[in-house]
Amino acid sequence: MPDHGVWYELVRGELRAMPLASGPHGLVTTTLLGMLWRHAVEHRVGRVFTPDTGVHLFREPDTVRAPDISFLSEARIPPEGIGRGFLRIAPDLAVEVLSPEDTMAEIEEKITDYFAAGTRLVWVVNPRARTVTVYRPDARPYVLGRHERLGGEEIVPGFSCQVEDIFAWIR
Asked: Is there a domain that residue 62 lies in?
Protein backbone atom coordinates (compact mmCIF):
# COMPACT_ATOMS: atom_id res chain seq x y z
CA MET A 1 0.00 0.00 0.00
CA PRO A 2 1.23 3.49 -0.70
CA ASP A 3 2.19 5.59 2.31
CA HIS A 4 1.11 9.19 1.87
CA GLY A 5 0.17 10.15 5.41
CA VAL A 6 -3.13 8.31 5.31
CA TRP A 7 -4.69 5.20 6.78
CA TYR A 8 -6.79 2.81 4.78
CA GLU A 9 -9.99 0.87 5.22
CA LEU A 10 -10.88 -2.04 2.99
CA VAL A 11 -14.46 -1.68 1.74
CA ARG A 12 -15.88 -4.51 -0.36
CA GLY A 13 -12.40 -5.39 -1.58
CA GLU A 14 -11.32 -1.82 -2.41
CA LEU A 15 -8.82 0.28 -0.46
CA ARG A 16 -10.20 3.61 0.73
CA ALA A 17 -7.84 6.29 1.95
CA MET A 18 -8.58 7.92 5.27
CA PRO A 19 -6.59 11.12 5.90
CA LEU A 20 -4.84 11.39 9.23
CA ALA A 21 -6.96 13.07 11.91
CA SER A 22 -6.78 16.71 12.97
CA GLY A 23 -5.92 17.91 16.48
CA PRO A 24 -9.56 18.50 17.56
CA HIS A 25 -10.53 15.06 16.19
CA GLY A 26 -7.72 13.45 18.18
CA LEU A 27 -8.62 15.29 21.39
CA VAL A 28 -12.29 14.32 21.17
CA THR A 29 -11.45 10.71 20.33
CA THR A 30 -8.93 10.44 23.16
CA THR A 31 -11.26 12.06 25.69
CA LEU A 32 -14.20 9.75 24.94
CA LEU A 33 -11.95 6.71 24.58
CA GLY A 34 -10.49 7.44 28.01
CA MET A 35 -13.93 7.76 29.58
CA LEU A 36 -15.09 4.48 28.04
CA TRP A 37 -11.84 2.66 28.87
CA ARG A 38 -11.93 3.76 32.51
CA HIS A 39 -15.55 2.63 32.84
CA ALA A 40 -14.88 -0.71 31.11
CA VAL A 41 -11.90 -1.46 33.37
CA GLU A 42 -13.56 -0.36 36.62
CA HIS A 43 -16.74 -2.32 35.94
CA ARG A 44 -15.25 -5.19 33.90
CA VAL A 45 -17.89 -4.86 31.21
CA GLY A 46 -15.71 -5.22 28.11
CA ARG A 47 -12.78 -4.00 26.05
CA VAL A 48 -12.23 -0.64 24.36
CA PHE A 49 -10.18 -0.40 21.16
CA THR A 50 -8.28 2.50 19.61
CA PRO A 51 -8.79 3.95 16.12
CA ASP A 52 -5.96 1.93 14.63
CA THR A 53 -7.75 -1.37 15.32
CA GLY A 54 -9.13 -3.00 12.19
CA VAL A 55 -12.44 -4.84 12.44
CA HIS A 56 -12.99 -7.49 9.78
CA LEU A 57 -16.73 -7.11 9.18
CA PHE A 58 -17.29 -9.15 5.99
CA ARG A 59 -15.58 -11.64 3.70
CA GLU A 60 -15.63 -12.06 -0.07
CA PRO A 61 -15.42 -9.25 -0.76
CA ASP A 62 -13.62 -8.29 2.42
CA THR A 63 -14.52 -5.23 4.44
CA VAL A 64 -12.21 -4.06 7.23
CA ARG A 65 -13.30 -0.90 9.02
CA ALA A 66 -11.45 1.09 11.69
CA PRO A 67 -13.92 2.86 14.01
CA ASP A 68 -12.48 5.79 15.93
CA ILE A 69 -13.45 3.90 19.08
CA SER A 70 -14.94 0.46 19.44
CA PHE A 71 -16.25 -1.44 22.43
CA LEU A 72 -16.69 -5.21 22.69
CA SER A 73 -18.67 -6.51 25.65
CA GLU A 74 -17.10 -9.02 28.00
CA ALA A 75 -19.84 -11.56 27.20
CA ARG A 76 -18.90 -11.62 23.49
CA ILE A 77 -15.16 -12.15 23.94
CA PRO A 78 -14.40 -15.77 23.02
CA PRO A 79 -12.88 -17.99 25.75
CA GLU A 80 -9.63 -18.10 23.73
CA GLY A 81 -9.49 -14.29 23.60
CA ILE A 82 -9.60 -11.87 20.70
CA GLY A 83 -6.84 -13.60 18.75
CA ARG A 84 -4.20 -12.11 16.51
CA GLY A 85 -4.72 -9.76 13.61
CA PHE A 86 -7.87 -7.78 12.94
CA LEU A 87 -10.84 -8.19 15.26
CA ARG A 88 -13.17 -10.77 13.77
CA ILE A 89 -16.16 -9.77 15.90
CA ALA A 90 -18.20 -6.67 15.13
CA PRO A 91 -18.05 -4.26 18.07
CA ASP A 92 -21.12 -3.80 20.24
CA LEU A 93 -20.49 -0.05 20.04
CA ALA A 94 -18.75 1.77 17.19
CA VAL A 95 -17.89 5.46 17.53
CA GLU A 96 -17.15 7.70 14.58
CA VAL A 97 -15.78 11.20 15.25
CA LEU A 98 -16.50 13.47 12.30
CA SER A 99 -13.65 15.12 10.45
CA PRO A 100 -14.11 18.06 8.08
CA GLU A 101 -13.36 15.71 5.16
CA ASP A 102 -16.11 13.21 6.05
CA THR A 103 -19.28 13.15 4.01
CA MET A 104 -22.63 12.01 5.39
CA ALA A 105 -22.76 9.38 2.63
CA GLU A 106 -19.48 7.88 3.93
CA ILE A 107 -20.68 7.94 7.54
CA GLU A 108 -24.03 6.38 6.62
CA GLU A 109 -22.23 3.65 4.67
CA LYS A 110 -20.10 2.86 7.74
CA ILE A 111 -23.17 2.78 9.99
CA THR A 112 -24.91 0.42 7.56
CA ASP A 113 -21.85 -1.86 7.52
CA TYR A 114 -21.59 -1.88 11.32
CA PHE A 115 -25.26 -2.80 11.77
CA ALA A 116 -25.16 -5.46 9.03
CA ALA A 117 -22.20 -7.07 10.83
CA GLY A 118 -23.97 -7.10 14.22
CA THR A 119 -23.03 -3.82 15.92
CA ARG A 120 -25.84 -2.74 18.23
CA LEU A 121 -25.04 0.93 18.85
CA VAL A 122 -23.22 3.68 16.91
CA TRP A 123 -22.33 7.13 18.16
CA VAL A 124 -21.41 9.80 15.63
CA VAL A 125 -19.59 12.60 17.43
CA ASN A 126 -19.56 16.03 15.81
CA PRO A 127 -16.80 18.25 17.25
CA ARG A 128 -17.95 21.31 15.30
CA ALA A 129 -21.56 21.20 16.49
CA ARG A 130 -20.58 19.60 19.82
CA THR A 131 -23.25 16.97 19.49
CA VAL A 132 -23.51 13.19 19.51
CA THR A 133 -25.98 11.41 17.24
CA VAL A 134 -27.07 8.02 18.58
CA TYR A 135 -27.92 5.28 16.07
CA ARG A 136 -29.53 1.93 16.80
CA PRO A 137 -30.44 -0.62 14.14
CA ASP A 138 -34.09 -0.69 15.22
CA ALA A 139 -34.81 3.00 15.91
CA ARG A 140 -34.57 6.49 14.49
CA PRO A 141 -31.33 8.32 15.30
CA TYR A 142 -31.45 11.15 17.80
CA VAL A 143 -29.10 14.02 18.55
CA LEU A 144 -27.78 14.88 22.00
CA GLY A 145 -26.63 18.44 22.67
CA ARG A 146 -23.94 19.75 24.99
CA HIS A 147 -26.14 19.83 28.09
CA GLU A 148 -27.53 16.31 27.69
CA ARG A 149 -26.17 12.98 28.90
CA LEU A 150 -24.85 10.24 26.67
CA GLY A 151 -25.50 6.77 28.04
CA GLY A 152 -24.22 3.34 27.14
CA GLU A 153 -27.68 1.85 27.56
CA GLU A 154 -27.53 -1.96 27.86
CA ILE A 155 -24.56 -2.05 25.45
CA VAL A 156 -22.05 -0.43 27.83
CA PRO A 157 -23.87 -0.96 31.13
CA GLY A 158 -23.62 1.92 33.58
CA PHE A 159 -21.69 4.25 31.28
CA SER A 160 -22.86 7.85 31.20
CA CYS A 161 -21.24 11.22 30.57
CA GLN A 162 -22.22 14.80 29.91
CA VAL A 163 -21.91 15.48 26.17
CA GLU A 164 -20.05 18.74 26.80
CA ASP A 165 -17.36 16.82 28.72
CA ILE A 166 -16.41 15.04 25.49
CA PHE A 167 -15.47 18.42 24.02
CA ALA A 168 -13.87 19.91 27.15
CA TRP A 169 -10.37 20.14 25.66
CA ILE A 170 -11.35 21.84 22.40
CA ARG A 171 -11.11 25.62 22.29
From this structure: yes
